[in-house]
Design goal:
Mean pLDDT: 91
Helix content: 25-40%
Distance between the termini: 19 Å
Radius of gyration: 23 Å
Number of domains: 3
Low-confidence stretches: none
Strand content: 15-25%
Structural class: alpha+beta
Strand order of the largest sheet: 1-8-7-4-3
Length: about 475
């Protein structure tokens, strides 16, 4: 009999955080520092900060996000190139190295998103207020400026500090829909011809950047991302997060910005933390996987050949492409943070087809980005690095450890959320696709809502990629189990 007593997802998320080594509550010394923070006006103006408050910046993020790390502005130049300016929230100005807030952030290393609660790396008084580039608020920032030519090549970059104001806080779904169709513009976009021109120009440049990366072998991967749907504070469904031109725009700009930062630190002869997905050790298995679809990949890792194979499969079989993408991602291996010493070259990011890559665009949410911001400030001031190589190496290792732990927390919670959503649908029939068959059992993913579970009856004869009809027979929110029988 299915267990129908109320399941507390909030409590489960907190317990999962603790079990994975996180501290979901801020200690007393952090709270004391928050309470005694300087006022905004006392740090707003700096002699070396440019006044860029008049530019028509904009931000695009999730509908509910308030921890805004970046805003963007684009300008066409006389030579046909487009100058991009990306302002990153100056978090370091409120979170000095060695402070209680900084030490706590160094332990956590990232904000963890569980679907029912966000466990912030920084106190929300900072991340969603003082250090967030909220609409209409004057803020200090570090600006990454670079030019993009007609081939999507990035050059003429520079970095500097500036005061900024975000006049337009936009959301991915509505902005993306408008960019795609040119219709149904959200009020902020509809009411500003200047903002419309900005977004269209930014989108054009983003497409150039993406095409240039694809030419270099960046991988075209598409996994199914989900989010819980709430009604009056209650969990009612699971929705697929759709990629859009708006989300791709931000992704393309952030990748370019991170490359600019990495190269700038290298030129300044400052050691840094790099983010890498190393050349896959299991390339032979990727070759075998492609061979199952009739494609022969080179014997040595080749991101361009893999990209072409993935594009072909996406075109031929879009329904099964997310599962193929997931299999490739697992074989590529997870990313990690590593130290890049002065004069040495860390391994490039295989999946993005970039050699110079660091994390620098989300200092409200990731500790590696906050550390990079401090390195950039030292560079701008002509000072020595605030970190030794040994300290950077230790920070990189901690960030990698905690990222792995956060991934496990988020995966556990996705399963529990799905089990809670499905628990009142016992006996209902769903269309599903077989996503895995191994010694542990057969697994399926329903099309709507997009949830995964085990096929506990009728699994004989099924294979990966088969479309079948299944009936839900049991859920277990505590363990995140969902069981189906073939209809």
């Amino acid at each position: 009999m299915n267990d129908i007593h109320p399941f507390n997802l909030q409590a489960a998320a907190r317990q999962s955080m603790i079990e994975r080594g996180f501290h979901p509550d801020f200690p007393s010394d952090v709270r004391e520092e928050v309470n005694s923070l300087q006022t905004r006006s006392s740090v707003r103006w700096l002699p070396d900060a440019r006044d860029l408050r008049a530019l028509h910046w904009s931000s695009i993020d999730n509908d509910t996000s308030r921890d805004l790390d970046q805003i963007e502005f684009a300008e066409e130049m006389q030579d046909g190139a487009v100058r991009i300016q990306i302002a990153i929230a100056d978090v370091d100005v409120y979170v000095p190295a060695g402070s209680a807030i900084d030490k706590h952030a160094a332990e956590q290393t990232a904000t963890v998103y569980t679907g029912v609660h966000n466990f912030s790396m920084l106190p929300e008084e900072l991340s969603t207020d003082l250090t967030s580039l909220l609409e209409g608020q004057e803020r200090l920032s570090v600006v990454y400026e670079f030019s993009v030519d007609s081939e999507g090549c990035v050059d003429r970059s520079r970095i500097y500090r500036a005061s900024v104001v975000n006049p337009a806080q936009l959301a991915y779904p509505s902005a993306g829909a408008w960019l795609q169709s040119g219709k149904s513009a959200p009020p902020k976009i509809a009411g500003s011809a200047e903002l419309q021109d900005q977004l269209l120009l930014q989108n054009r440049v983003a497409q150039l950047l993406r095409k240039a990366r694809y030419r270099r072998g960046a991988l075209n991967l598409e996994t199914i991302e989900t989010q819980p749907s709430m009604l009056n504070g209650q969990l009612v469904d699971i929705e697929t997060q759709q990629k859009s031109l708006a989300s791709e725009l931000i992704e393309d700009f952030m990748i370019a910005a991170n490359e600019v930062v990495a190269r700038s630190l290298e030129r300044a002869r400052l050691s840094s933390i790099r983010r890498v997905v190393k050349t896959p050790k299991r390339w032979d298995r990727i070759v075998e996987l492609a061979a199952q679809y009739g494609t022969k990949l080179p014997g040595t890792p080749d991101s361009k050949a893999l990209h072409d194979f993935l594009c072909e499969r996406q075109s031929l079989d879009p329904d099964r492409f997310p599962d193929l993408s997931l299999a490739v991602i697992k074989l590529l291996g997870s990313g990690e943070y590593v130290l890049e010493r002065v004069g040495e070259s860390a391994e490039g990011h295989f999946g993005l087809a970039v050699q110079d890559y660091t994390h620098s665009t989300a200092p409200n949410r990731r500790y590696a980005d906050l550390v990079t911001q401090r390195l950039l400030k030292a560079m701008l001031a002509g000072q020595r690095s605030p970190y030794s190589d040994e300290e950077l190496a230790a920070i990189a290792q901690q960030c990698t450890r905690q990222e792995d732990a956060a991934r496990k927390v988020e995966r556990e919670m996705r399963k529990r959320i799905a089990a809670v959503v499905m628990r009142n649908r016992i006996g209902q029939t769903f269309t599903a696709i077989v996503t895995g068959v191994n010694e542990h059992g057969s697994f399926v993913r329903t099309t709507h809502p997009p949830v995964e579970g085990m096929l506990v009856r009728g699994q004989k004869g099924v294979d990966v990629g088969d479309k079948i009809s299944v009936t839900l027979v049991h859920t277990d929110p505590e363990r995140g189990f969902i069981d189906f029988a073939r209809s």
